[in-house]
Design a protein that fits this description.
The chain is of the alpha/beta class. The chain contains 25 helices and 14 strands. It has helices at about 5-10, 15-25, 40-55, 70-80, 95-105, 125-135, 145-155, 165, 170-185, 190-205, 205-215, 230-240, 265-270, 290-295, 325-340, 360-370, 390-405, 410-420, 430-445, 450-470, 475-490, 500-505, 515-520, 545-560, 575-590, and strands at about 30-35, 60-65, 90-95, 220, 245-250, 275-280, 285, 305, 315-320, 350-355, 375-380, 510-515, 525-530, 565-570. The protein has a six-stranded parallel sheet with strand order 3-2-4-5-1-6, with helices on both faces. Strand 4 (about 220), helix 12 (about 230-240) and strand 5 form a beta-alpha-beta unit. Helix 14 (about 290-295) packs across helix 25. The longest helix is centred in the middle third of the chain and has 19 residues, at about 325-340.
Length: about 600
């Protein structure tokens, strides 16, 4: 008789008291885990155990996280434990959860002020309507920072009839109200509106509590520090009013999305509530001792993390007397080759060059191009965005370019992932017809040398056009796909790509990684190179409040703690105060 995979995996948790407490917990709990703390491993094993031992059909478990990339990571980890995303498990972003589990089934019954039928605005349509609202209220074109501030306002001041909203500057609240009216007039709701609708349903309607508790008696929330006040209030209401069991996981020290309304204090607030067990995972399985010591200097109240194996590690600081482009030339042309020479087991994919902004990424990519380097770029300048449809397309490309023979990607997994995106297909005949069209397109394009643009066009016509039209949850994906298709066309950044090259994007060990600090979160590398670490740039001279300065420190902390063994920090001539703090820490360790 074979042992369930999660039981075997759980044995690896026994020697870590914090991880074992999570595994054995039987009530509400908050798990704080730092970089390399093994939180994803721990929480996926816990989910597998709950599905096997606690929940019985038709009851389900829902796991909510920050992004589609996080959903993909959880799905891959659970697959290794023999757990599939089926009728017992929902893996979802907060926006998708609010759409499929709250707004679609309950908004009309609760007489919420939402469009009927429910249609989600694409990012491009949302921008158009916001510009129109700004023009109507204030005149002229809306600056980018104003949209960011208005979005943050909607996510942090939730009661439109409250004193705080009424006391806020009318310049912003009037534009927000005009924008929301335009959405409704056009039969649309945006992603923030979905979350606000979900919050209203959960907080004001007791029958919604009962419905959610009946379907999802256990709710797991990953990356809690990034998810903001609306979800926090939903979680508290479901836990205290409905009796839903809550398991929340996160790290306030890695809260780096304050501009979206995320607050590191919310996870700490949750663990202080009555009936909630607080658990810390204090072992760091990733970073060497010197990196851990340095990272602590970047935080106002650092947790006492400990290295798992006592490796020393290395941090080097470079005053180069040149701008970011010059730093990239040195990093990519001199430092990276030296690292690869000195560490024979490393590949270029074991190294990441991290930066703050898109503009810095442009300069760094130009340096890489001039050196003829292969690289994977992850920022707003990348033509390949990390999204649910793009992840599915890369897997489909790998299947078409040989995976159908090697088994590295299976057709059944591709179809299962496609089915999760096509939730509106409930009639048997429609589902079979749509599935047959997709399979025919995949089989007709089993050749890795096919140009990417031709292949994308065929997949779009066979499967994606209908999905974009019929699935409200894919509203943001259409724009990403159109950008990808354009990039694969004549003169585009991906014009020379075959489907084999596309399928290997981001997965090849022979590509060095270029990415923003925000995009690097959740990843790890043997060595990290950080550039542009000048005083006045990092932290920005515009960061004046304690909150802004602390978030800048947390962002620097995220970058440093991506590294297992080495960190290389570069600046022009006036070093960031964060580098100054790290100097002191490394000298004391040495």
């Amino acid at each position: 008789m074979s042992t369930n995979p999660y039981i075997q995996a759980a044995e690896e948790l026994r020697d870590n008291s914090g991880q074992w407490r999570v595994y054995e917990s039987d009530g509400n709990c908050v798990v704080q885990a730092g970089p390399g703390g093994g939180k994803t491993k721990t929480i996926t094993i816990k989910i597998a155990r709950l599905l096997s031992e606690t929940l019985r059909r038709p009851r389900r478990l829902a796991c909510i996280t920050y992004s589609n990339a996080c959903v993909g990571e959880l799905r891959a980890r659970l697959k290794k434990l023999g757990v599939a995303e089926d009728d017992r498990l929902l893996l979802s972003t907060v926006h998708s959860f609010c759409l499929s589990e709250l707004a679609l089934p309950f908004a009309r019954l609760a007489s919420l002020k939402v469009p009927e039928p429910l249609a989600v605005a694409s990012p491009s349509r949302s921008r158009q309507l916001f510009e129109k609202a700004y023009l109507k209220v204030l005149g002229g074109a809306a600056p980018g920072w104003f949209r960011i501030e208005c979005d943050k306002l909607r996510r942090t001041i939730l009661d439109r009839n409250g004193a705080e909203w009424k006391a806020w500057t009318r310049r912003e609240t009037a534009v927000v109200e005009a924008y929301e009216e335009l959405l409704l007039e056009n039969g649309l709701i945006d992603f923030d509106g979905l979350v606000l609708a979900g919050l209203e349903l959960v907080e004001k309607h007791e029958w919604v509590h009962r419905a959610i508790k009946a379907k999802y008696p256990v709710l797991v929330i990953d990356e809690y520090q990034d998810l903001g006040l609306p979800l926090h209030r939903m979680v508290v209401a479901l836990m205290r009013k409905a009796g839903v069991r809550i398991i929340a996981v996160g790290d306030p020290d890695q809260s780096i999305y304050g501009f979206t309304g995320a607050k590191p204090s919310l996870l700490r607030d949750l663990e202080r509530l009555p009936g909630v067990e607080a658990i810390r995972l204090k072992l760091n399985y990733r970073c060497a001792d010197q990196i851990i010591a340095a990272s602590k200097t970047l935080l106002t109240s650092p947790t006492d993390f400990q290295s798992d194996d006592g490796r020393q590690g290395e941090i080097r600081i470079y005053e180069l007397g040149c701008n970011v482009r010059g730093q990239a030339d040195f990093g990519l042309g001199t430092l990276v080759p030296a690292l690869l020479k000195d560490n024979a087991a490393w590949k270029p994919g074991d190294i990441a060059l991290l930066y703050r902004t898109f503009n810095e990424g442009q300069a760094i990519a130009e340096a890489a191009d001039a050196l003829g380097l292969r690289y994977f770029r992850l920022d707003n300048g990348s033509p390949i965005k990390r999204s649910r449809v793009t992840e599915w397309l890369t897997d489909a490309a790998r299947w078409c370019s040989g995976g159908w023979q090697t088994g590295i990607v299976s057709l059944s997994e591709l179809l299962k992932s496609w089915r999760l995106m096509r939730r509106s297909l409930t009639r048997g005949r429609e589902l079979l017809d749509a599935r047959a069209k997709l399979i025919a397109a995949l089989f007709a394009h089993r050749d890795g040398s096919i140009p990417l643009h031709r292949w994308l066009t065929a997949i779009r016509d066979a499967a994606l056009n209908d999905a974009f039209k019929q699935e409200p949850g894919l509203a943001d994906e259409r724009d990403n796909f159109e950008d990808l298709l354009k990039s694969a066309g004549k003169g585009g950044a991906l014009a020379s790509y075959s489907i084999e090259i596309f399928g290997n994007q981001g997965k090849s060990p022979d590509q060095i990684n270029l990415m923003t600090l925000h995009s690097s979160k959740g990843l790890e590398f043997e060595a990290v190179v950080m550039v542009g670490l000048e005083a006045g740039a990092f932290p920005s001279s515009q960061a004046r409040t304690d909150e802004q300065l602390e978030e800048a420190g947390r962002l620097f902390y995220v970058g440093v703690t991506r590294a297992k063994s080495m960190v290389h920090l570069m600046y022009d001539s006036n070093e960031s105060p964060f580098i100054t703090a790290i100097r002191g820490a490394t000298e004391s360790v040495n």
